[in-house]
Task: structure prediction
Amino acid sequence: MSAQRVPWQVKFLGLALIWGSSYLLMKVGLEAMAGVQVAALRVLCGALVLLALLALAGGRLPRGLRTWGHLSVTGTLLCTLPWTLFAVGEERVSSAIAGIANATTPIATVLCTMALLPHEPVGRRRLLGVAIGFVGVLLILQPWSLTSGPDPVGFAMVLAASASYGVGWTYVRRFLTGVDTGGLSLPTAQVLVSLAQMPLVLLGWWWFGARDELAVPWSLHATTDVLVPVLAVVVLGVAGTGLAQSMQFDVVRAAGPTVATSVTYLIPVVSVALGVLVLGESLGPVVLLGAAVVLGASVLIGRTAPRGRRRPPASARYAKMNA
Result:
């Protein structure tokens, strides 16, 4: 059966599984690598796959110095920063917590819409969703307790990673909508920007923090049993960063952006299930309650407006699904 004949529903579920499992793959990769190394290998593999897919489709990269100036911003916000923060954050928190944090992306998107797109209405429903989402975050963090809740630094990192998606996609809406030629042009360009940035990030991390422990920036922490961790990150880059981009566009074309972006709501469910079943992670009842509150807030923010009313801002509908 050709790729064109695969039902969009199958690709939709595939996206949920691929992006939901990305947190598990990062956690496995951390058994032999540091978070920055995981991010660097992910970007490398993803860039190679996207370049190959773009070439096979006969596409081309965007042109123009101004366009690439904006792409340098979105490549940072949508690739380099979140992928690095997620991996480094998972050195401190579980993969389940990292996946739950991804559900806060629509909350950040609404706030960024207010700042970058002041003429685009937000609406009381989405503002209520933001307020509810903050309550959920507090329930997960549990600042009133010194022993419950995730590591605060690690949780802040994965929250910042999720917020970076919201900022990045609002920036795309503000500055790059008119130059998007469709297909994999913009995603490939953004990952290429990240590919150019990651050697500097890797070198800076090694020089200022790991030079006493590692001989070179690409040295692994583990000396044995490194095959599985490395393969996990390769799969993360090839499938989660490369192939999933193509699948995402197929779902958008077949079912529309509203349906496509709803995959965001399945990502935390998959990440929590894999974290518990595969890695043996555990979440307390208050954390689970907070996760449900955050997920409910995201659904409220992304819910389609009733017929006859204004559609949600495009920046909210296109909130980044990537992990």
Summary: Residues 3-317 form one domain. The chain is about 70% helix and 0% strand. The chain has one domain: 3-317. The radius of gyration is 19 Å.
